[in-house]
Amino acid sequence: MAKKCDVPRTFNVAAVGLSGTEKEKGSTGVGKSCLCNRFVRHLADDYHVDHISVLSQTDFSGRVVNNDHFLYWGEVTKTSDEGVDFNFNVVEQTEFIDDSSFQPFKSSKTDPYYKRCTTIKLTSAEKLMYICKNQLGIEKEYEQKMIPEGKLSIDGFVCVFDVSDVPGRTIDKQVEYTCLILNNLMKTKKPIVLATTKNDEARESYVKEAERLVSRREYKGSIPLVETSAHEDVSVDLAFIVLAQMIDRTKGKSKIVPFLEAALRRKEVLDVATEAYQSLIRTQVTDHKAVWSRESKKFAQNSDFVHYCDLFGHDAAQRMFRRHLKKLKEEYIRRKIQMYIKVLPEVLNELLPDLQSLHECDWRNMRTKLQQHPDFSQYFLKSPDEQSWQESDLVDITETRIPLDILDTAEAEACFEEHKTSLEADENRK
Questions:
Q1: Quick one: 31 and 117 in the same domain?
Q2: Domain total for the chain?
Q3: Looking at the domain assignment, is residue 1 inside a domain?
Q4: Residue 307 belongs to a domain with what CATH number?
Q5: Is 310 within the bounds of a domain?
Q6: The pTM is what?
Q7: Is the same domain home to 382 and 241?
Q8: pLDDT digits (tens, 9 = 90+) for 146-199
Q9: Does 278 lie in the same domain as 385?
Q10: Same domain for 363 and 409?
Q11: Of 234, 257, 280, which closes a domain?
């Protein structure tokens, strides 16, 4: 039996930040949910950009929200750059809006958000882990995991500050509100990290405001700033790991990297994964008639495929697969066109053996004349239902006759002109 000291510590962390009605927060939130989502469920297929804020009374009283203004995001283990593992329980302090009155739901705690969000003792019996907004009302169809023993003692806070431009919200309003939150968080004596969000679309002046905010004398330089992007998955883990290291100073101290540097590192990871997956499908998929359902099963155990799906999602993997098939088909069609153009001079010799058979027609009129030739169907075929041959089943059959569409190409016209020139030269030699 393991000793108590052998059990790794779990850090209970709350994400907080400007919340409320559209009047308070503007047209969109500051990104608390996306930050928590990316941190706890980081795989691309598990990341959602839309989360709950306005909901019905039924959903508010359901087991996920549980008549609380906070969400339990679940438990996750992360590893720092130094190789140290950290266990986290993550909650998000927010404010849910009634879809009938568009006012915050009434709950047992009546304090304004900037006070309520600093609570360090959270209780909510049988509250379920939140995964995504589609989960509400059909909770049994999703993983059901309850908040530990119905309660959490918060060890530290990630305070979220949005550095993007949001309609209906001024930067002054966000600074003022965040100050109220930080001032109350300071009273808890718990460590705080300020995480700027949406840095992939940041306004530089807003980033400067966040820097000035944490530099205020009253915070005594105790609040580090980490620049993040949940959508791009840049420095999200870092914000939480830095907080855990502040809670437990024996766990090391990670370097806080500027956003542009972190984004460049992330891009390098994505580029390497993309090239590896592209190489996989280039070497393994050579038939343009390949089927995704079958090929993806073959790839299921391939590390390059799995890594790409982790970073970009299965839909993105399928889109790249389809682009590859499109390229294969284009190359296949190009080869077939070259084959048809190669035999076209022989066909023209058969159907148009002399200058008299040309009737002094140009190529446009000659195409019509060719279709009236009694042997036309011996050498050419028409696509069904007015489809182009490339889009019809004709593209994949072993038919040796030339699709009529080929006569619409510049290459076919060039063949005709060469044939005409050759006949004229023969006539002049007589």
A1: yes
A2: 3
A3: no
A4: 1.10.10
A5: yes
A6: 0.86
A7: no
A8: 999 988 999 999 999 999 999 999 999 999 999 999 999 999 999 999 999 999
A9: no
A10: yes
A11: 257
Lookup: tokens for 327: 């390229």
At 6, is the pLDDT very low, low, confident or very high (cuts 50, 70, 90)?
low
Residues 343-397 pLDDT 10s: 999 999 999 998 888 877 888 888 888 888 999 999 998 877 777 877 777 777 7
* Residue numbers of the domain that contains 353: 333-429
Whether 361 and 423 map to the same domain: the answer is yes
- 218 and 295 in a single domain? The answer is no
